[in-house]
Amino acid sequence: MDHSSGIRASLAGRYATALFALAEENKSIDMVQTSLGTLTAALDESDDLRALISSPVLSRANAGKAIAATANSLKLDDLTLNLLGVLAANRRLDQIPAVIRAFTTLASSHRGEVTAEVTSAHPLDDKQIDALKAQLKKRVGSDVSVSTAVDPSILGGLVVKIGSQMIDNSIKTRLNTLSQAMKG
Fold first, then answer.
1. How many angstroms separate the CA atoms of 67 and 160, rounded?
2. Which residues face 161 on adjacent strands?
3. What is the value of pTM for the model shown?
4. Which of 28, 144, 153, 156 is the most buried (most CB within 10 A)?
5. Cβ atoms 38, 71 nearer than 8 A
């Protein structure tokens, strides 16, 4: 399934497509994806980093210096470091999460995988992710790359997005459906 035309339609997608093209040319797709994974983990863990990428009051120069220092401390590859510099210079640091998602989709498609975005109420361990990948592979017929997120508001179960398909098996949705059914 080719996602590239849909991805290029978004602002973050254009940055991700450019990064992917450079990574492919330099045969460093896996290295860039590892760096983006490191950056995602840092964003998940650091309130300060999330504040940095969403702050409209920082000047371009200060945002660039701060994100470069962060990237260097995380030991990100040069292509990712350059991308972050371009995003800072264009005041687009808030696009980082969307760029990462788009790049992951492009890299998965390049490897012949399908990307599934999985939201759970609690973090999934490696064994659960492997079992989920196996089930999704049976459903879609190809290898599946899983991107996880945690949202305690769903209470339990999973919400899985594969392309335009969404499987919502969360307790929150079940309770809302039951509530609507009881109202008549």
1. 31
2. 117, 166
3. 0.72
4. 144
5. no
